[in-house]
Design a protein that fits this description.
This protein is of the alpha+beta class and about 300 residues long. The chain has nine helices and ten strands. Strand 2 and strand 3 form a beta hairpin. It is elongated, with a radius of gyration of 19 Å.
Length: about 300
């Protein structure tokens, strides 16, 4: 069942988050939580081995290997014993991690929230960053247990995470859980801020050189949001050619602006990962969509 939650963006949140990835797809750029550049966006994939079924975003690294982000979308999380949403997400995230073919090197497990909190920013995110850089589980757990090595919120987060995972898989080791945490990313979008949203502005900036300038990019963002609203309930997915054809039909990709040279070293999305590109062009009967570089991954 899709997670259409009330408050903080409500039923508009998931289409807006999807739109962020569609914008990166059409710009051949990076997006938040994805390693490399976005190559396809899929929704409601639970029936084909995607326990976190709100979004599956395929990507590709500059040297060729495919990547994947499985993403669940919600409003906010408290990460406490009484947080029913977190209690629902963690077992499905663990099932994603245990999925046949999951690669910690190229795949990421994501949770998108529309409301960040002090706890998330000052405790949970630093703890996940520490896990990503930990040499091994013993070192990570030793530091976590020391009073000056972690705070109360971090220790509570780890306790609850351990309990939720081991309720799903009793034999999960500390090393297993650390590997899971290395692949976990929690992404705070501000897309409920409308025109003040930094994520929306970054996507518009990413689209502008492709569709013919900032005004057309804003119209394209609205079109992509409408497209996302249609794709989500029916499931399935789209690749770059599919999105480009729909935008071509609306006259929103191409024109003289699209043929102007891009500034050297231009960024595809200031809030997304950076990776090298190869200048490939996608040509259609009415337009030309050109490749852009993508910025640094904020969740690797």
């Amino acid at each position: 069942m899709p997670v259409y939650v009330a408050g903080g963006g409500g039923t508009h949140l998931e289409p807006r988050v999807t739109c962020h990835y569609l914008a990166a797809l059409i710009a051949e750029g990076g997006a938040r939580g994805v390693l490399g550049t976005v190559t396809a966006v899929k929704t409601q994939q639970s029936e084909i081995d995607a326990p976190l079924d709100d979004l599956v975003v395929d990507g590709r690294l500059p040297d060729g290997p495919p990547t994947r982000l499985d993403l669940q979308v919600t409003t906010t999380l408290s990460f406490t014993d009484s947080d029913d949403k977190w209690a629902d997400i963690v077992p499905r995230a663990w099932a994603t991690f245990r999925r046949t073919g999951f690669s910690p090197d190229t795949d990421r497990i994501g949770v998108a929230v529309s409301q960040t909190t002090t706890k998330l920013e000052r405790s949970v995110q630093p703890l996940l960053a520490r896990a990503r850089h930990a040499a091994d589980a013993a070192q990570y757990r030793k530091r976590l247990a020391v009073a000056n090595g972690s705070n109360k919120d971090q220790r509570e987060f780890q306790r609850i995470l351990d309990e939720l995972i081991r309720k799903r898989e009793a034999t999960a080791t500390d090393a297993d859980i650390l590997a899971f945490m290395k692949s976990l990313t929690i992404i705070a979008f501000d897309l409920d801020q409308e025109d003040a949203s930094r994520d929306r502005l970054a996507s518009v900036d990413q689209l502008a050189p492709v569709v013919g300038g900032p005004d057309e990019a804003r119209r394209t963002w609205s079109s992509l949001t409408a497209m996302a609203s249609r794709v989500i309930p029916s499931g399935g997915g789209v690749d770059r050619a599919t999105v480009a054809r729909e935008l071509q039909g609306r006259g929103q990709v191409g024109g003289a602006e699209a043929d102007r040279p891009r500034p050297a070293g231009g960024r595809a999305n200031p809030r997304a990962p950076r990776s090298a590109g190869h200048g490939r062009r996608l040509a259609g009967p009415r337009c030309e969509v050109r490749h852009r570089r993508s910025p640094d991954n904020d969740a690797a």
